[in-house]
Every structure is written in C-alpha cells, then in structure tokens.
# Entry
Amino acid sequence: MTATGTFLPKPGAAPLPRMIRAQAALETRMLLRNGEQLLLTVVIPSLLLVLFSTVDIVDTGADGRAVDFLAPGVLALAVLSTAFTGQAIATGFERRYGVLKRLAVSPLPRWGLMTAKTCAVLVTEVLQIALLTAIALALGWSPHGDPLSVALLLILGTAAFSGLGLLMAGTLKAEATLAAANLVFLLLLVAGGVIVSLDKFPGGVRGVLELLPISALSGGLRDVLQDGAGVPWRDLAILAVWAVLGLGAAARLFRWE
Amino acid sequence: MREEPAVDIVGLVKRYGPKTAVDGLDLSVDRGTVTAVLGPNGAGKTTTVETCEGYRRPDAGTVRIFGLDPVADAPALRPRVGVMLQSGGVYSGARAEEMLRHTASLHAHPVDVGLLIERLGLGSCGRTSYRRLSGGQQQRLALAMAVVGRPELVFLDEPTAGLDPQARRATWDLVRDLRGDGVTVVLTTHYMDEAEQLADDVAIIDGGKVIAQGSPEELCRGGAENTLRFTGRPALDLASLLKALPADSTAAELTPGSYRVTGKVNPQLLATVTSWCAQNGVMPDRISVERHTLEDVFLELTGKELRA
# Structure
C-alpha cells in the first residue's frame, strides 16, 4: 500500500465551455472517421450531384440546367444524411454500447452533451455544404437568392431532422434504428423532391409529400437558390412544426439505456 | 461531528417488474477504505452499485453518497465519483488514448494520462480503436476512465472479470495505490482472492441482502474452526499439549505419527504447538495450517449449488 500522490483526490468538473468543446470535437471526429457515415454524408450526395448533372437520366423538370435544379436538392439531402440518418445510427449505437450511460455519470451535463452533438452535426454540415457547393459550382451552378433564407432553412431543417433522428435512436433498438434510418433516407431521397421533382407525383400524393420535412427543405432551398424567391415562409413553417414535434417527442421519450 | 460515510445505504429495495433485485439492503462504507461486494450472479450487486451511481431510483430505503442523494444531487456528485461500468461505455471508433484524454478533459485536475496509460499497460494499444481492443484492454481502459478525474470515491463493477493474471495484478496494484492516496473504493467481484487481497471490508450479498459483512479475517474466523497438522514420531503424549492450548482446542493422532490440532489457529497457537514440540524433542515435519478461505465462507453462506 503506497501513497504515491498520483490519485490524491482533487475532484472537479472542467469549465463548461471546455467540456462542450471537447465533446463536440470528439463527436465530430467519430462522425468523420466512420466509413459508412461518410458514404451516406459525402459520397452519395456528391455522386448524385455529379451523375445527374452530367448525364440526362432524370428529367429535372424546369428549363435551365440540371445542376441548378439538383444542387438545392442535394444540399437538403446532405442535411438529411447528417442530422437524421447519421445522428440516429450513431446515437443508437452509443446507447446500445453504454456510451450514453457512461457519459451520464461524467461531469458533462446532459444538455451539454446534446449541445456538443448539435455542434458536431453543424460542423459536419458546413464541411458537406462547402464540398457540395464547390462541386456544383464546378459543374456550372449559378445560385441566386438571399443567403439568410438559405441559412434559416438549413438550421430549421437540421433541428427537424435531429429531433426525428434522436427520437428514433432513443426509442428503437440499435439494429432497428440502423435499418429504419437507412430506409427512411432512401424513401425521402426518392419522394422528397431531392432528385425527382414533386411535380412528377399525382396531385393528391404530392399534397402529402409536400408536408414532409425533406420536401419543405429541398423545395424551399430550390425556390430561393434556383428561382431567387423571397423568404419561403411556408417551408420554414413546415420545418418548424417538425422540429417542435420531433424534438419534443425525443425529449419525452428518449431512453438513455 | 463524525464524518459522513462515503456510502450509506439503508433498507434499499429495488424491483424490476415482479422481480425484487434488492430486498432491504444495508451497507455503509467508510471513507478511505476498499470494500468488496461479493455475491453470486443475480444477487443484486450491480443494481446496488448502479443505484449509488444515480442510474436507478430506490423503490424504498435511502442511498446517500457523502450524505448526498445520488439522483437529486447528481451534478455535485459526478465530479467526485468515478465509475467503471461492467462493460462498454466507449465509442466503438474512439482510440484508447483518445478516449482517456477526452475523459480527462472533462475534469479540472486530471491524473497525467501518459502515466495512467503506462501504469495499466495500455501503451501498446493507445492508437487502437476501442472495438479492436481485447476484452482485457477494454476493461483497463474503463478502469483508467474511472480514476482519471481524481475522484474521492470509485465504483468498479467487476474490474478484473476476464483479465489475464498480469493485467489482474496491475489492476490490484492500482486499487492499492488508490487506497494509499485516500480514495474510497467499492468494487464488485466474483473472485474471493481478489476480495481477500484488496478489501478492508467485505460485504457478501445474496438474494438482494447483505448476509455477512466484515474484514476478510473476521469473516474467515466466523466459520467453522481451523486446522493445524504436523507429523512427528508416533504416540506423543497429547495430554500435555492440550493443557498448553486454549480450552476450545482439540488435538488428536489421526494415524501413527500424524497429528491434527483444531481450534482458533493464530500465531499464539502455532507458537504453543512448536514450543511444545521443542520441549518434547519432536521435529514437526510438514507442519501446515489450514485456514478457512473466504471461498469456504462464501460457499457456506450462499450454498454450493449452481444458480441460473
């Protein structure tokens, strides 16, 4: 039995900003290091953008160039892939492997963890958007509109998808979350106005699809970036409702273990 | 005023549906001690520890950590209490050293991470991601994460389960150092030798209750008598030996030249026997002491049959 002094008790939490910064950095590294996540968040959106802009497979509806139609949709897809699919899968497995359980007894408060997760999602999105914008510009994209409207759409879209992703991760088993999150990604990719214009769907179906958060995000971004429209209030309102519902339900129903 | 105990559990009851996991458990842990919570699978060890960690609310009874409520006072307690879960707790893609550095960064005065990595033999796998670590390396990382924040109290849930002998020893040395520096340690274990080696106090739990508690020596003394054996020349006069021994002892020649003494086997008794041998010109060959191990006591108390 030796008194080495190494473990002499001196407990204390690190200052909150430092804890949140450290947690956000770790969460971001985990997101960017995961191969499957990168496939979803970087590879698929980039491929879709390049492929459908250069090869005339999907009728992108409007006159004008395909990239002007596709770029806003792919930006919406990037938000979906990170805030919803990626976050749901990662959080589901963190829950399954006791990461959330262990963090719950660390000095980092729960809201600090959620703040850090949000920061990690936002940082990833900024990287995605920078990359996709660069690709789109290289393909001849000429965006219009008010950057503030774009930012508002992206932020509300992130909030809406985060709420839904966390709701799924906090209530389903990790494997079920993995399967469901990928399925939802695929369905929304096809039916959310990302690469296929909602005009292609029959009227009644379209009316329902337009209420989806992905449709509101892709539609809103397209109105602003392609057509230079003003603030897309209707789409922002749809996203806000989803955000309130999703985050509210997640806060109530999320099980940490 | 007497210092609050580190852990004070009174009448703890915890049910999961129809099953009662903990059934009126009392346990008090003094500061600066190592307490081993011993019990068969399903005895209620982990539930008890997780209630202390604030994961579960008692259905009845009270749990206090440094006099505070583990759930209501969680923000105040979290930096003071280190936790090692039975498994998991780390991002599967995180590297061992990265995760430990991260945990350290959540604390104000962490232990030097490099030192801890060296102490626990994690140097060779510092850059290995968690999912590629061996079970033993994962255990040691979890242990390091529990102590890196310089806590006053640590809960270690089966810290050496599945470890190889070297890693086990490294863990034991660390627990001894924690105690040496005044950290209170509560650990659960299946291993009797671990409790015997490390613990100041052992609590044996079965059926959700503490069925025996005391120092390893006290517990071992509590059971049946211990035995001393030696061989010498046949037909020694045992009457004079019995006169020298304490009243509750026995002495017998089992087979010619093979002797057995029973009673409270302690250094005095051993000295009495050997000096009696010296007086009688007997060389007590193969003198041996059979003391009850904690394992004997444990099996006696919890029964020998295997449980589901």
